[in-house]
Every structure is written in C-alpha cells, then in structure tokens.
Amino acid sequence: xxxxxxxxxxxxxxxxxxxxxxxxxxxxxxxxYWYQQxxxxxxxxxxxxxxxxxxxxxxxxxxxxxxxxxxxHSELNLSSLELGDSALxxxxxxxxxxxTTNEKLFFGSGTQLSVx
Amino acid sequence: xxxxxxxxxxxxxxxxxxxxxNCAYSNSASDxxxxxxxxxxxxxxxxxxxxxxxxxxxGQRVTVLLNKTVKHLSLQIAATQPxxxxxxxxxxxxxxSQGNLIFGKGTKLSVKP
Lengths: 116, 113
Known about the structure:
The complex is a heterodimer. By secondary structure, chain A is mainly β. Chain A is built from no helices and 11 strands. The model of chain A has no long low-confidence stretch (mean pLDDT 92). In chain B, the strands form 2 sheets. In chain B, strands 1, 3, 4, 8, 9 and 10 form a 6-stranded mixed β-sheet that branches. In chain B, strands 2-7-6-5 form a 4-stranded antiparallel β-sheet, with no helix packed on it.
C-alpha cells in the first residue's frame, strides 16, 4: 500500500458527461501529481499541485481541470467526456519537500474511467 | 514520441535466474532516473532511483546501472521470483528538479516457475 488513496476505483459514464476523481496523498506529502495511463500512450503527466497551488502542467486537455484543497486532497475534473478519455487515471504524491522537486513519486491504485 | 524507450517489450525468465531490463534515453540533460513496477490492476510501485552523478545503486535484490555515455539505464533483478512478474517502467527527469518525469512504455516481465 503506497498510502495514496484514490476514489472511485471504477467509473463508467457516457460521452458528454462530467466526472470528478478524488485523491488523498500520503500523510505529510504536499505535492500531488495526476497521470493518465492509456494503452497507446503509456503514463502521461497531466498536472501537479503543491500545497494548494498549481506548479506544473503537462499534456492536460482544456476540458480537464484539477485543484488541491487546504487539507491537501486533490480532485481531477473531466468534462465533455469523449470515448478517447477512457483510461486509467493515477494520482501520486511525493515525500520530497519543495514545490519543484519531482522525485520518488508514490502512486495510488488509480481510477479506471470508461466512457461509453 | 517519447525519448525514453525500452529495448525489449517482453522478457521471459526462469524462476531463480537474474533479470535485466533495459531502457534508453536520449536527453543528456536528464539528471534523475527511476524504476517502477506495475502489477495488474495496481498503480506503479517505486523500486529504485538514481541520480545522474552516480552510475550504480543497489537495493534489495535490485540494482540500477546508469551509463551516461550511451544514455542507457538498466534494472537488474537478482534471483527472480514469480512475484516479480509485472510491467516495469523507467522514467527520466529532464530539466533539473523542475522537470517532470517522462515515462517509457514499459517492459513486461514474465517469470516461469
């Protein structure tokens, strides 16, 4: 168990809908990262938050957004869903302190999103 | 496409043998590398990491070797066990501590009993 908690484990929805994925980082970790894993693209970095503030953006679509709350949990919002958004979405946190440190990420078990 | 890649997409080894999983990278400015193991239905699990100022680092039954001359990273697993069966990913960090981790596509390791 990595200590990173993600809910829900599975999510099935229809095209055009909006969903929210939730993540609780390891106790004491201030950084939260979101990754998308699909069969053809592998693990793709989406976005990073540190202590409530956005720190880095990767290949995140404009239809997607995220935030980190004062209690450090994070949510990834996916809207206007398309078939191609079906993937595993992982959250990770890092014990390394500092907003720009990007090392030793610990991943949650992921949310499997299926868009039908 | 990604510059971090793997020479072998699948690797099959006998239980008890040593495994070597290879990874190539193309960015000479990458300063940090990390290996993850991902079992079916689970998230990537940290195995071992290494900084670019090192060429070897050992953990429990695992060793990571870094050859900056040829931009090559390898993960060696000693006495491979059935529980080692998984997909293994390497990742590199480009651009110093502000860079993001870029993951390779993964190598599937199968351990035959």
